[in-house]
Amino acid sequence: MTGSIEQGTSQTRGATHILHFLVRLPQPMEKVWPALSTQEGLAAWCTTADVLEPRLGGLVALRDLGTGRVTAWDVDRVAEYSVEDGGRIRFHLERDGENGSVLRFTHEFRGEQQTEQAWRTRFERLVEWWQPSSRSESPPA
Predict the structure, then answer these.
(1) How far is CA 129 from CA 3, 23, 50, in A?
(2) Of the candidates 134, 130, 132, the residue with the CA atom closest to the CA atom of residue 23
(3) What is the pTM of this model?
(4) Strands (E), the chain
(5) Out of 22, 48, 98, 124, which could bridge 6 as a Cys pair, Cβ 3.0 to 4.6 Å?
(6) Which has the closest alpha carbon to 30: 139, 126, 127?
(7) What per-residue confidence (pLDDT) applies to 138?
């Protein structure tokens, strides 16, 4: 199984923009989870996490994305980070067959700073990590 990124969708509701992506990864959820829920994992493919307290209500500071709180935390399944100006970044993992995972991603934000292409580029880095030519099956670090 190889990874893939389905076409992202974008909606606008008033001043709020909502991006959705579905990303298929060739690794089980347990191996993908650290890439979404740790400082090291996020830094490898998404952005530097200057602060990440991995628990509901914990502080989070994602460089270039914002500072706020962890507003959903279901270990191995859901990490949601709500940042200033009403932004929300949600990673929801599901099983995809015996050895794969599906990442359902949502980003709500105001303004024009985040684009579908910027997130696609990030997800390409995440998918690339687990391709057969990759150096290991460990999460990005």
Answers:
(1) 9, 13, 22
(2) 130
(3) 0.87
(4) 4-5, 9-13, 16-25, 49-52, 59-62, 66-74, 78-83, 87-96, 100-110
(5) 22
(6) 139
(7) 54
User: Which residues, other chains included, contact 37 with Cβ-Cβ below 8 Å and sequence gap of 6+?
Assistant: 52, 54, 75, 79, 91
Cα–Cα distance, 64 to 99 (Å, whole number)? 32
Cβ(87)–Cβ(67) under 8 Å?
no
For residues 127 and 140, the answer to whether their CB atoms sit within 8 Å is: no
pLDDT bucket at 132, cuts 50 / 70 / 90: low
Range name among 26-30, 51-55, 108-112 with the lowest pLDDT average: 108-112
Residue 4 identity? S
Sequence-distant (6+) residues with CB within 8 A of 3 are 23, 24, 25, 26, 126, 127, 128, 130, 131
> What would the two tokens of residue 72 be?
């959903």
Q: What pLDDT sits at residue 14?
A: 82
Query: 118 and 13 in contact (C-beta within 8 Å)?
Result: no
Task: Yes or no: say if 25 and 125 are a contact pair by the CB < 8 Å rule.
Answer: no
